[in-house]
Design a protein that fits this description.
205 residues; mainly alpha; Arc Repressor Mutant, subunit A; Tetracycline Repressor, domain 2; 11 helices
Length: 205
């Protein structure tokens, strides 16, 4: 990556996060960087292209960190799958917290096609990760083998979307740690007390 391209990405990332997509102007970016608009467009032909690259590169970085955790699990280097799954979720969600609700609403309003492209990209990444984690857990005897994998993905992915693309976290008045703790308790242990789980599950099977 060239120094100029790197500087453009760093400055534009800061500006987009602070002001949203619609309020950032390429002329202002060029002035902040001390370069001409022509130089800016040489690296990124449009503001939309610049924004898309920033988000996708951020997702790729997150994907590489998550992939490293998954490979550690699959190789047997890590023996605590649940802890590692929590590490993955915390890493992904902390990345998402960099983007405010206003930021995504701005994107959906002004560049809907880019929003759809980014959403599809995020969904594909998460689907692959959840599939790898679930199948590793089944092989290790941690997860039940008779649960529909697609349903697992739908539950996790839509929980992820609803928490960080809405006001849910604010409305619940939960800290990030509290949110993560209760999410994992519900997903892995449910809301039924341990002594009642056997009879409850038996009624549905």
């Amino acid at each position: 990556m060239s120094d100029t391209r790197d500087r453009i990405l760093q400055t534009a990332t800061t500006e987009f996060l602070q002001h949203g997509y619609s309020r950032v102007k390429t002329e202002d970016l060029a002035n902040l960087l001390g370069i001409s608009k022509r130089t800016l467009y040489k690296h990124f032909p449009s503001k939309k292209r610049l924004f898309t690259v920033i988000v996708k590169e951020g997702l790729k970085l997150e994907m590489s960190r998550t992939k490293a955790i998954i490979e550690r699990i699959a190789s047997g280097e890590s023996t605590d799958l649940i802890d590692e799954l929590r590490n993955i979720w915390e890493s992904v969600l902390k990345t998402e917290r960099n983007f405010s609700q206003f930021f995504w609403e701005d994107v959906k309003k002004y560049i809907p096609n880019t929003w759809k492209e980014i959403s599809a990209y995020k969904e594909e990444i998460m689907k692959n990760h959840i599939s790898l984690i679930y199948n590793t857990g089944v092989k290790q005897g941690i997860f039940c083998p008779d649960i529909n994998e697609e349903l697992i993905f739908i539950i996790h992915f839509n929980t992820f979307k609803n928490i960080f693309e809405s006001n849910i976290m604010t409305d619940l008045s939960l800290s990030f740690h509290e949110l993560m703790t209760q999410f994992f308790e519900i997903v892995f242990f449910g809301i039924i007390e341990e002594g009642s789980r056997g009879s409850f599950i038996g009624k549905f099977r």
